[in-house]
Design brief:
The chain is of the alpha/beta class and about 350 residues long. The protein contains 12 helices and 13 strands. Strands 1, 2, 3, 4, 5, 6 and 7 form a 7-stranded mixed β-sheet that branches. It has a 6-stranded mixed β-sheet with strand order 10-9-11-8-12-13, sandwiched between helices. The radius of gyration is 21 Å and the shape is globular. GO terms for molecular function: bis(5'-nucleosyl)-tetraphosphatase (asymmetrical) activity. This is NUDIX hydrolase. Belongs to the Nudix hydrolase family. Keywords: Hydrolase.
């Protein structure tokens, strides 16, 4: 590496939050949507960690390991530093500052010609111990950080967090978190649309289209995608009954011990014949996700995804979000997913965040 070439250290983390114990919402999370954003914020507490090396209070975060996505690193590092198993929620922001400013209170240098640290942040919520056990094989093990790295954690109100946080960039991230909560993110539920992994070509396959399997390369991508989907704790798995869709979620189903629900209306043939019925079947899954407060992953085909995107763009809270749901084929690559964070409003479901989810295959 050239002496003049700057180094960028990639990292990831998040703001882990929960409803305060004893609060009305903690007793009945379903009523959160009925509360104002101010009431929600007053019922929220966030997790801050102390690093003895720098004697600072900051958000849990850490460097990416080799062959690891920012998403996976965020979940792993949060688990290591807090001891809390979490699922990712809406995305917050990215922060970049010179490595020389690590541990300093102010990190507003604009010098990007020096070695820098680049960190992505998500909202994140604790999951149950039972859910964490279900995810172990798909996500991988998480080991607690050494006491020399993190020697204390505290759960505090948003107001207290502003006072305790050491760094200006962490306070900026907290401000974005508050904006997200005011947008409805504290009540958002996640629905993952998965496009099946690479399948055998139609021309070479001698069987029926419904029985056309994924290729070995597709199987590798599907396996790698499991690690990324596990970051969101999908507890409901649904799929087109055609083989290539089933095979894409099959290992995740086996690893997490979550069964797959078959939705006949989401096959290619069913969609081509009755696109409205397919949309209504998909809309039902959105409604179930909001009602059960469980993350749902649904595996579908390219043309079906395009048809669903046509409807979903109209549900986006902002025009910029709708542009992330591509209008032209192939809509999204094989073996990838998009995470839709949806809130329930008097006007119906509204999408407030969209994240593209791609596996790292190596």
């Amino acid at each position: 590496m050239s002496e003049n070439m700057r180094r960028v250290v990639e990292a990831a983390g998040g703001i882990v939050w929960r409803w305060k114990a004893g609060s009305e919402i903690a007793e009945n999370p379903a009523i959160a949507a009925q509360k104002s954003p101010k009431e929600q914020l007053n019922s929220i507490e966030v997790c801050i960690v102390h690093r003895p090396k720098y004697d600072d209070w900051s958000w849990p975060k850490g460097k990416l390991e080799q062959g690891e996505s920012h998403r996976h690193a965020a979940v792993r590092e949060i688990g290591e530093e807090t001891g809390v198993s979490i699922a990712l929620g809406p995305y917050l922001c990215e922060v970049e500052y010179p490595l020389s400013e690590e541990g300093k209170k102010t990190r507003h240098s604009r010098d990007r010609a020096v070695d820098t640290k680049h960190t992505l942040y998500w909202m994140a919520q604790p999951i149950s111990g039972d859910d964490a056990e279900h995810l172990l094989d798909a996500f991988g093990p998480v080991h607690r950080a050494d006491v020399g790295e993190i020697n204390d954690i505290v759960w505090v109100s948003v107001r207290e967090a502003r006072k305790i946080l050491t760094h200006s960039t962490d306070k900026d991230t907290l401000a974005i978190f508050v904006d997200r909560v005011q947008e409805g993110a504290a009540t958002a539920q996640n629905l993952l649309i998965v496009r099946h992994a690479k399948a055998e070509s139609r021309k070479s396959w001698k069987g029926t289209d419904a029985n056309r399997p994924i290729t070995p390369k597709g199987a590798a991508a599907a396996f790698a995608l499991n690690r990324e989907l596990a970051c969101y704790n999908p507890t409901r798995l649904a799929t087109s009954p055609w083989l290539r869709c089933q095979e894409t979620l099959q290992v995740l189903s086996w690893q997490t011990e979550r069964s797959m629900e078959h939705i006949d209306a989401l096959t290619e043939d069913a969609f081509a014949e009755h696109p409205t019925i397919a949309w209504l079947a998909f809309l039902k899954q959105i409604q179930l996700t909001l009602e059960t407060r469980e993350t749902t992953a649904i595996c579908m085909h390219r043309p079906v995804i395009g048809g669903m995107f046509d409807h979903l763009r109209g549900l986006c809270a902002r025009k910029a979000l709708s542009k992330q749901l591509i209008a032209k084929t192939p809509f999204m690559p094989t073996g990838t997913a998009v995470a839709l964070f949806i809130i329930d409003t008097p006007q119906g479901p509204s999408i407030i965040d969209i994240q593209k989810v791609s596996p790292i295959v190596y």
